Predict the 3D structure of the following.
Amino acid sequence: MDNRAIGVYDSGFGGLSVWQELCRRLPNESLLYLGDGKNCPYGGRSKQEITAFAFDAVERLVREGVKMVVVGCNTATTAAVSALRERWSDIPIVGLEPAVKPACLTTRSRRIAVLATEHSLRSDMFLDTARRYASDVEVVKVVGEGFVEIVERGLEDSPEGREAVRKVIEPLLGTGVDRLVLGCTHYPFLRHHIEALVEGYGIEVVDSGEAVARRVEWLLERYDIAAAKDNKPTYRFLTFADEEYRQRLEERAMAIKSRL
């Protein structure tokens, strides 16, 4: 048994969609969330920049004594997860990647769309996954233009947020796409708008948050580092931005937790 916290890292607020699934599946586990904030968004940055940000974040979480790290950011995963695992080989590090595999295995039309950041869509990890599982599937790559910024500003339900989603999603409607993969952890916060737009078009929206929580649970058992059944979990929040940003992170997370 190990009651130390699991560290969760994202460029900003997006990883709270993964944090939510961890809370739901692992109610005894303490979580330490680091939302960069200072350098967000990552999508248009170079691999070198993103890797440097990821190293700073994981180093901070390790200094805080976490027993595992979840890189709750698709872009940081594609850029840096291999290097992170090499540097911190003594603790499990879980990464995220777009749920291309399940989408390809379940599509009936053999045409899927992957909605992700610019960096994720051109990363070696994404391209390798697509080659492995999508040899007979057409993969439409779509950048969620402005989505990260909207979520960071808390504008998901504003006219601006709805219009941004409409502009990206409407061109996919009626094109034969039957799976839409959310390839950035910020995007599930816009899922209700996306699902409203695709209703009636036979499109299923897929994301990887639940699968990541299952993977974390499996690793906790494998390494015998799960928290005690009677552990009273704590939830802490860090950022490289200012205290106002950290407070917003905490408030949003606690609002999510209250709905679970």
